[in-house]
Amino acid sequence: MEDLAIFLSKSLMGWLVIQVCFTLVFIWYLRSSKKNLLPDDQLPKTAVILCLRGADPFLPRCLRSLLNQNYPQYDLKLIVDSHEDPAWKIASETITEQEATNVQISALRIVRNNCSLKCSSLIQAIRELDNSYKVVALVDADTIVHVNWLRELVSPLGDAKVGATTGNRWYVPTGRYWGSLVRYVGNVSTVVQMFIFQIPWGGTLAVKTEVLRQTELLDKWGQALGEDFMMHDILKKHGFQVKFVPSLLIVNREETDLFNLIDYLKRLILFSRLYHPRWLALVSEAVSSILFPTLLSVLVLESLLEAKWEAAALLLVCYGVYTVGLLLIMLVLELEIQRVVRSNEQAIAKLSAATIIKMLIGIPLTQWVYGLAMLSSLWTSTVTWRGVSYRVQGPWNVRLVEYRPYQWLDQPINSKVSL
Questions:
Q1: How far from 125 is each of 145, 204, 229, CA to CA, in Å?
Q2: Phi and psi (nearest 5°) for 164?
Q3: CB 117 within 8 A of CB 111
Q4: What is the per-residue DSSP string for 55-106?
């Protein structure tokens, strides 16, 4: 047991150092990146595509923010799952309220059986665009953007080497549910990983239409469960980069409980296993972040039961240093993200002492919840999302097995809970 304890202690400290290094690189990028925004006459005509199934908690705010962009030529294309979907009524009312003329709302006409509904909607929207659109921007309904969002998203595409640009979501740690806190803690490392591996996020993503044609992305989406994770490798093969834009870190204030979070995590882990270009690196990260600290805590208990007080104290100190180190990483990143968010005039609550204590408790809880979700995902071959079920036998072998239109009765009772 002594050898195992030494190995785990050294491994945890080494992994903590690696995470600190990744975090410092991410922070350096946040601080060193400059906004080089194109003038109006150089900004290409852009189609912003939003696919809807169900009324997300902040959908009206999302739509209003998209309809009031500081951008010369853009059209918002809404693809709603069906006319009876709750999102249809909300979208129609918001369009009328804003008196918007640069928006088109359509129902999904063809429900494809070999890809996700979102991919079906994206393919429909993009194939209906004429040649005047030079850029396609994707956005999710949980994304409330600032007024320069589209300008900041499209401007880096002026570089011929950049095929796509992206941002990321940043959850808040001040929710009422423990599931919301666990999602926040897990997302902190996810944001850094996605930056390091150049993985785009479909909630804020722009791609040149010529790149869509050259890479035949639409054909891939027509066979896939998700649209974003796969893009890094596909674009790289054609010589294009994915550029992360720091100012497009978007605050998400939705809530979730632990039960719904585990379902979400199982889907996320499955998507990663199918399409993430560095899946083995993620597995290694999971072993280091979940298995090692869990084993170390078990050894602490075993040492206490066997009255090995010195061994228990040393192991406990190692576990405490690792956990506090992770907390400090989160706090530093939170302060950096708050700086970015406030520069875009997005309000975000300051951290209280009670919230920081909950974050500390949330670290081991996150390890256990993510570990449970990862183990559960190993046997997952059927995915259910917003009432739609898919059988997944491979990245390009997806079958829709159960579909029905989304109804008002499907909406959560708590209006702030993620769908």
A1: 21, 16, 20
A2: -150, 150
A3: yes
A4: --TTHHHHHHHHTT-S-SSEEEEEEES-TTSHHHHHHHHHHHHHT-SSEEEE
Question: How many contiguous H segments (helices) and E segments (strands) does the chain have?
Answer: 14, 10
Residue 363 contacts residue 325 (beta carbons within 8 Å): no
Phi–psi pair at 207, nearest 5 degrees: -140, 140
Which residues are paired to 137 by β-bridges?
48, 206
Tokens 């300008």 locate to 151
3-state secondary structure of 416: coil
Question: Phi and psi of 197, rounded to 5°?
Answer: -95, 5
Residue carrying the six token digits 């280091």: 288
The per-residue pLDDT for range 175-234, each reduced to its tens digit, is 889 999 999 999 999 999 999 999 999 999 999 999 999 999 999 999 999 999 999 999
Contact between residue 225 and residue 392 where contact means Cβ atoms under 8 Å apart: yes
Confidence of residue 1 (pLDDT cuts 50, 70, 90): low
Report the greatest alpha carbon distance in the chain. 75
Distance of alpha carbon 277 from its chain centroid, rounded?
A: 16
Quick count: other Cβ atoms within 10 Å of Cβ 267?
19
First to last CA, the chain: 45
pLDDT bracket for residue 398 (50, 70, 90): very high
Pick the closest to residue 168 from 130, 142, 133 (CA basis).
Answer: 142
Laid out side by side, the sheet with 46-52 consists of 103-107, 74-80, 46-52, 135-139, 204-208, 162-171, 241-252
Structure tokens at 77: 């294309």
Band (62; pLDDT cuts 50, 70, 90): very high
Structural tokens at position 261: 């979070």
Q: What is the mean pLDDT of the chain?
A: 91
Stretch 373-384: mean pLDDT, rounded? 84
**Span 273-277, average pLDDT:** 88
Distance CA 213, CA 41 (A): 24
Which letter does DSSP use for residue 417 in this model?
B
